[in-house]
Amino acid sequence: MIKEQIKETVNSSVGKYLDENGIDISGIDFDFEIEIPKNIKFGDYSTNAALILANKIKSKPRDVAESLIEILNSGDNTLFKKMEIAGPGFINFHLKEAVYLKGLMEIDSKGKQWGSSKIGEGQKILIEFVSANPTGYLHFGHARNAAVGDSLSRILKYSGYEVTKEFYINDAGRQMDLLGESVLVRYKQLFDIDIDIPEDGYQAEYIADIAKELKSQKDDSLLSLAEDEAQTICKDFAYEILLNEIKKDLLDAGIEFDEWYSEKKNIHTKKNGVNALEQVRGILDSKSSVFEDEGALWFKATDYGDNQDWVLIKSDGLPTYFYADIAYHSDKIQRGYNRLINIWGADHHSHVSRLKSAVTAINNDDKIIEVLLIQFVRLIKDGKEVSMSKRSGSFVTLREVLKEVGRDVTRYFLLMRSTDSHLDFDMNLAKEQSSDNPVYYIQYAHARIESVLTRADESGHSPSPENLESLELQEEMQVVKKLLQFPEIVDQSAASLAPHRIAFYLQDLASEFHVYYNRNKILTENNELTTARLYLISCIQTVLRNGLSLLGISAPRRM
């Protein structure tokens, strides 16, 4: 990448400066930034190297900057057309056009791999997301978590990490018992038995549908069974149906998990006479991290940075959700991952510190785990917010939104804002096929380029790098610079777990292309200019396609 070339060149000039002045800074932490100025009048890139170095050697930053520029100019300068000192000692670089045009050829040669890197090579990441209770269809409240998790997985893989996507199935506990009770009530009602669903049970119509399916297979056989046995059958039957529906909805959204981790099977079921809860209890006991009080077992979270201690086993002998979560994360660590990324809703904020304290207890530190909190999404239709409450049954499912606006629009709208910002999903805008709809705008740029390339081929023209010097317009060079920023955007997205950066970038790139296309002919009477412009837009198409792929969105050739 150009940024890396600049940093290497500047670093070399710093080394020469230190040698010439007999200065030794070995053992001193020295690092500097190479950034793109917000205002293009300040150049293509800027560095604070002189400021950082001057602070280390107790010199004047502008004097150091002048010396570094002199060294850079004295060597084989293949990068910089002009260098300037700005402010207290920043160095602004204006790059030679040939540097950018050479970068275009790199985009063409790398194709689908342009923007990828190996920064994560050798590191294994487990990313856990969605993990919705299998007590109903996926409602739209889960959708943002799903889109972010899947896109991040794509970005991290593209950056060289070995990524495993995992769905934690909450198939144990009271909510599953309520599912069984609710289905059994609906089943009995089919035989005209006067009975009501529990007050905190599931009221939605899908419960009735499951009961009807159960009746078609079991007829009235459950009526003769003991209540707890009948409820267990109803629970298991509903669980299988609903989990399969969750998998189907996620697949329709372009999301496929590598692992489906059952809480019941992996945490609560004994293997060789012991379950995961008892195993982690042994670890905590060995570190004197638990204590008993008023008949309950507590974890000493305050010993590990949290502000209070937490119950693991209640006085009635039942384990808490937190206890199961500790066991789950202990198992994650034992599976050999270097990083554990959890994607949770913002309402789980208070759970982060307690989990990190537990991870510290079992792993000696909590650096292995990262929790990305996702702010809520509101579904807006005809200017009004749509309610999303699962138990009451008045919720909108993910499948309904996918059916109405499609996978691509759904995913982009869920990814186009920072995860720490609330998101309004406007159904009316999502269905528009206009420049106001950002995903349509981006995909149209890709399809538009395909149309031009097809017409060019029919008229005997093809993209060629041989005459790139014909690209003399300032806006052409701006587009080239934008294209060459893509690897950096991907790196930033991977480092900050922020897929919205790619969404922003694609919208900006599509805008620059549309403006350029509307102002200039691609197929001109000048063959050299035509082949150069065709080469430019083919590179734009490559970057659009790569970026959309990282968001899990298609790049249509026709629209």
Descriptive overview:
By secondary structure, the chain is an alpha/beta fold. It has four domains: 2-95, Arginyl tRNA synthetase N-terminal domain (Gyrase A, domain 2, 2-Layer Sandwich), CATH 3.30.1360.70; 101-119 and 434-550, Isoleucyl-tRNA Synthetase, Domain 1 (Orthogonal Bundle), CATH 1.10.730.10; 125-167 and 256-374, HUPs (Rossmann fold, 3-Layer(aba) Sandwich), CATH 3.40.50; 174-252, no CATH class. It is 50% helix and 13% strand. It contains 20 helices and 15 strands. The strands form four sheets. The protein has a five-stranded parallel β-sheet, sandwiched between helices. The protein has a four-stranded antiparallel β-sheet with strand order 1-2-4-3. It has a three-stranded antiparallel β-sheet with strand order 8-9-10. Helix 5 packs across helix 14, helix 6 (174-189) packs across helix 7 (205-218) and helix 13 (398-405) packs across helix 14. The longest helix is centred in the middle third of the chain and has 26 residues, at 227-252. The radius of gyration is 29 Å and the shape is flat.
List strands and helices in order, with pairings:
Elements: H1 2-20, E1 34-35, E2 45-47, H2 49-57, H3 61-74, E3 80-86, E4 90-95, H4 97-110, E5 124-128, H5 143-158, E6 162-169, H6 174-189, H7 205-218, H8 227-252, E7 259-262, H9 263-268, H10 276-286, E8 290-293, E9 296-299, E10 310-313, H11 321-334, E11 339-345, H12 349-363, E12 369-374, E13 377-381, E14 384-385, H13 398-405, H14 407-415, E15 423-426, H15 427-430, H16 438-458, H17 474-484, H18 486-496, H19 500-519, H20 527-550
Parallel strand pairs: 5-6, 5-11, 6-7, 11-12, 13-15
Antiparallel strand pairs: 1-2, 2-4, 3-4, 8-9, 9-10, 13-14
Helix pairs in contact: 1-3, 2-3, 4-17, 5-14, 6-7, 6-8, 7-8, 10-11, 11-12, 13-14, 16-19, 16-20, 17-19, 17-20, 18-19, 19-20
